[in-house]
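Example 3.
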Amino acid sequence: MKFEAITIKDIAKALGLSTSTVSRALRDSYEISPETKEKVLLYAKENNYRPNPIALSLKEKRSSSIGVLVCEIANSFFSQAINGIESVAQEKGYNVIIAQSKEDFEKEVSSLQYLASRSVDGIVFSVSGETSDFSHVQQLYSRGMNMVSFDRVVDFPDIHKVSVDNYKAAYDATTHFIKNGYKNIACVANAAFLSITKERVEGYKDALKDHKIQLNPENIYYCLHGGLLYEEVAEIMAHATKGKSKPDAILACSDKITTSIMRYCQQENIAIPKQVGLVGFSNLDLTDLLAPSLTVVQQPAYEMGRIAAELLIKQIESKRPIKEFEDVVLATELHQRASSEKKKA
Amino acid sequence: MKFEAITIKDIAKALGLSTSTVSRALRDSYEISPETKEKVLLYAKENNYRPNPIALSLKEKRSSSIGVLVCEIANSFFSQAINGIESVAQEKGYNVIIAQSKEDFEKEVSSLQYLASRSVDGIVFSVSGETSDFSHVQQLYSRGMNMVSFDRVVDFPDIHKVSVDNYKAAYDATTHFIKNGYKNIACVANAAFLSITKERVEGYKDALKDHKIQLNPENIYYCLHGGLLYEEVAEIMAHATKGKSKPDAILACSDKITTSIMRYCQQENIAIPKQVGLVGFSNLDLTDLLAPSLTVVQQPAYEMGRIAAELLIKQIESKRPIKEFEDVVLATELHQRASSEKKKA
DNA sequence: AATTATACCGGTATCGTTTGCGTAAATTAA
DNA sequence: TTAATTTACGCAAACGATACCGGTATAATT
């Protein structure tokens, strides 16, 4: 069975009018007599007429929908961001079409291709962890697709970007460790290509430098899959805790990495923060209830989604090409809790 | 700027053919000579031709997209379910359009209206906590929209449903409490209208009855907003812990309720499970890391999403009206952890 | 009375694609 | 040689809505 909506033609036929008259009556044109308007409006209301958005899209060459590409929906950061995107889209009369890259480059390329071919008016995207080459994005963008880069932003200039101050976030988190007496701080980051990874690692390094702590390159670890695979993190942790370096603190640079590290520590009976302190990037809303309560860097995901969507829609609806590109950088929040508490002597 | 894709007309003009010939060549029709086909195919490939899905939708009266209505995207259960839906949709060539009701009846009605007017081919939906009257769904459904009800299912028969065995989940959780020595078990549930609420409360009641424990009606609490508001839960907890009944165990019937209760207990220094045992419905993947580790009823959200999407797409693509409706009921998993451990004497 | 203005409405092209029908040319059959 | 058939393509309608370009009837103006 099929859902068949009433069309302007049906109204025209029922009332003995032409489609153009009905169309104009519905759009309240001055060329239509009040009586005719009333008749049409009444009939339309009674029969619950809605203009067919697909026909409109075809005519107007716009679909009033925006695509969202993230690596994983079932991730608190991204679902909160999508929440923000959806709320703005709803307000402005757009719908949201979602696609996932699952941190896979091929899937990212095909998903973008897919969204573009689905005639979305624009795309908000965060690149996958495997993405070091942005030419597929660049290409689509230069062909005229409206795009806003968020979270894991691309490295070319003329595009709206929405991200957080990852450098400062990592710098502050590392400094927080140092102030609390931790000496040998490791950093477990996402895939090395990512903008967020580079910035976070840089913040981490600079914090060490500024506090005159010698950087040990072995203390920096990268997860190609961003912790999507537990084993990836477990291996790193095994290496870190059983190797020479033996860090007394770990800065975990993603949600999944953070959780995986906690799980590893619990399984291996590694006491947090006694044996190893932990600060994690996380947007889960119950990190305060963990054992121990977790010091986290929290990102304004919902807000990021809202801003990205607003920029995108503004760009879509702009008459002339955008010349000035925003590079919105929001602040993160460091919630200090037990997992990184002050070292006792 | 606008993203302008190449059309069949462009190809026709470039090669000096008619659009119909190009169309047929692309669809590999027998009426087109091999040479012409080759020319067209080559040109199409070189210029990255993709058929305009909007034009196709208009013609075929189908959009190859499905709508998803949930109350909140940023909820682990629903984001996992959406994940499952998206994965099936992707496989079958559909895209997913999402909408949120935010547990609000009005917003649910308008969101459904919205999805329908956006010409989706079908809708997977979970009703809001305020929804006791299903006539808006019933109406849309009887007008021919393909729909699958999941999680919080509707009460009318001729529709595909995908849910979990909420009765058994609550029954087993309650029984688990009883076996571990808890005597005065409270149940904090979602809005009373919801199918999942009724089933869970029923399971709770029957478990008590079967173990010859007198039911205290005051021990059953309902959250109209499903715990979306912390205050809602805090009030209930205040009433429960400071009132006469003083339960020694609580069955929390939703993700948010569970988290809120834990947070309340932490703030009020109520020891879990010593002062009050806790079992919660939750799909978060770090409940094992909480303090104390949390006994949870976990739902196969991803699987539910997959099944719902499969049923919907099968229905969409079915030539004749469906007569047999599935009522898929999946099992939940009870993960026993510290928050409900055995009472000492 | 002829012209002009105004009010109202219809015809048709358009968006991109598919498809039934028509037809010229080429080929085959008689 | 002529008729029948096949091959290979074009024309036009259709999907739903809009908008330009008209057109007609009545009323107002010269």
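Residues 64 and 93 of chain B are 7 Å apart (CA to CA). The two ends of chain B are 74 Å apart (CA to CA).
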